[in-house]
TrEMBL record:
<feature type="binding site">
    <location>
        <begin position="57"/>
        <end position="60"/>
    </location>
    <ligand>
        <name>GTP</name>
    </ligand>
</feature>
<dbReference type="InterPro" id="IPR053930">
    <property type="entry name" value="RapZ-like_N"/>
</dbReference>
<dbReference type="GO" id="GO:0005525">
    <property type="term" value="F:GTP binding"/>
</dbReference>
<keyword id="KW-0547">Nucleotide-binding</keyword>
<feature type="binding site">
    <location>
        <begin position="8"/>
        <end position="15"/>
    </location>
    <ligand>
        <name>ATP</name>
    </ligand>
</feature>
<dbReference type="InterPro" id="IPR053931">
    <property type="entry name" value="RapZ_C"/>
</dbReference>
<feature type="domain" description="RapZ C-terminal">
    <location>
        <begin position="169"/>
        <end position="286"/>
    </location>
</feature>
<dbReference type="GO" id="GO:0005524">
    <property type="term" value="F:ATP binding"/>
</dbReference>
<keyword id="KW-0342">GTP-binding</keyword>
<dbReference type="InterPro" id="IPR027417">
    <property type="entry name" value="P-loop_NTPase"/>
</dbReference>
<dbReference type="Pfam" id="PF03668">
    <property type="entry name" value="RapZ-like_N"/>
</dbReference>
<feature type="domain" description="RapZ-like N-terminal">
    <location>
        <begin position="1"/>
        <end position="162"/>
    </location>
</feature>
<protein>
    <submittedName>
        <fullName>RNase adapter RapZ</fullName>
    </submittedName>
</protein>
<keyword id="KW-0067">ATP-binding</keyword>
<dbReference type="InterPro" id="IPR005337">
    <property type="entry name" value="RapZ-like"/>
</dbReference>
<dbReference type="Pfam" id="PF22740">
    <property type="entry name" value="PapZ_C"/>
</dbReference>
Length: 288
């Protein structure tokens, strides 16, 4: 059976991801206590379900500790288990909870030294949830939704659906350092030392996917040198990530604004590795 487990920090987009998979025709269950996961798999197999999508989070805090071992056991039994972990910066989460006026799932917990009338603050709830989920975050692929629109998150989840049967999916992701390093990055490369098309008024409106910028960067010797260095590094260490049974590897390339140099490098790297690997391209600061 193919099992997709959606988890992560509250407010980071788990409901959106679950709806995408529901719309794609998958059998989905929300807010399942982890201790019931293996029984659910057994029953679903008897019902002829081929792909099962389960969402779980800190609302099931008491049984989260057993989740890593349950996932390992399911894999040992021959099931294909993929974990999608959604996260976001604390600033983005505070803004989202303020906009929706929703309470955090852990807001009704109290600290041991307080009386029942006291409640954790929103930031305390977010920090407590991060601590609860720290052992789960490394079990699969992480998406940082801090600066993602709803539509972009939907597209990224759909991309994962298309690659879920690959042994390892190689993600190349461009980003802007001025917005911070993405939380979902496994490898990070800084290309801000390269000539910046932004300073040419004729090139500024374009992105690294457009031919005028491509021509400009192709003409710069140091661009080719850095591209080759990054490609060589990724190619050298990719077998080690595969041996570590990784399902996804996210290579993040950053420049100042996330529009020209990082986008160009991601596109070029994706073309190179697409010849031998399952590749997905992401551009955080572009609208596509």
């Amino acid at each position: 059976m193919h099992i997709i487990l959606i988890t992560g920090i509250s407010g980071s987009g788990k409901s959106i991801a679950l709806r995408v998979l529901e719309d794609a025709g998958y059998f989905c269950i929300d807010n399942l206590p982890p201790k019931l996961l293996r029984a659910l798999v057994t029953n679903s197999l008897q019902d002829g379900v081929e792909t099962l999508v389960v969402a779980t989070d800190a609302r099931s805090a008491d049984s989260l500790a057993s989740l890593p071992s349950d996932i390992a056991q399911l894999k040992a039994e021959g099931h294909d288990v993929k974990v999608l972990f959604l996260t976001s910066s604390t600033e983005a989460l505070v803004a989202r909870f303020s906009e929706t006026r929703r309470s955090h799932p852990l807001s009704h917990r109290i600290r041991p030294d307080q009386n029942p009338a006291d409640r954790l603050t929103l930031i305390e709830c977010i920090q407590a949830e991060r601590e609860l989920l720290v052992e789960i975050e490394g079990l699969g692929h992480t998406i940082d939704t801090s600066d993602l629109s709803t539509n972009k998150l939907r597209r990224w989840v759909k991309d994962l659906i298309d690659t879920q049967h690959a042994s390892l999916t190689l993600m190349f992701e461009s980003f802007a350092f001025k917005h911070g390093v993405p939380l979902d990055a496994d490898l990070v490369f800084d290309v801000r030392t390269l000539p910046n098309p932004h300073y040419d008024p004729l090139l500024r409106p374009f992105s690294g996917r457009d031919q005028p910028v491509i021509n400009f960067l192709n003409s710069q010797p140091q661009v080719a040198d850095l591209l080759n260095d990054i490609s060589t590094f990724v190619a050298k260490w990719l077998p080690s990530f595969k041996q570590d049974n990784r399902s996804y590897l996210t290579v993040a390339i950053g420049c100042t604004g996330g529009q020209h140099r990082s986008v160009y490098m991601v596109e070029q790297l994706a073309k190179q590795f697409a010849e031998t690997e399952q590749v997905v391209v992401r551009h955080r600061q572009l609208n596509y």
